[in-house]
Amino acid sequence: MSFGTVVWAIGAVILFFFLWRVGVGLLRSMTEPLPPPPPPGEMRRISVRYRCGVCGLELKMTLAQEEDPDPPRHCMEEMDQVSIDEAL
Prior knowledge:
By secondary structure, the protein is an alpha+beta fold. The chain has two domains: about 1-30; about 45-85. It has helices spanning about 5-30, 85; strands at about 45-50, 60-65, 75, 75-80, 80. The chain is elongated. The N and C termini lie far apart (about 60 Å).
């Protein structure tokens, strides 16, 4: 047996155990239940963009107390929700 063959065999064993660990980890992560939602009143991460229909001001809301918050008001009017394509 040559030195190159031994190196290839050791590399194959290390690669096998690495791929095996990653596969088992992925399967375990898919079987765990989702964490419960935060209690009411606690801030949640969101990503919603709004635009004022009167003056054109845009803002991005990143935290809110609920998943679908009411739109903010600007220029005495409710702001319009902007899709990702329109914002860019």
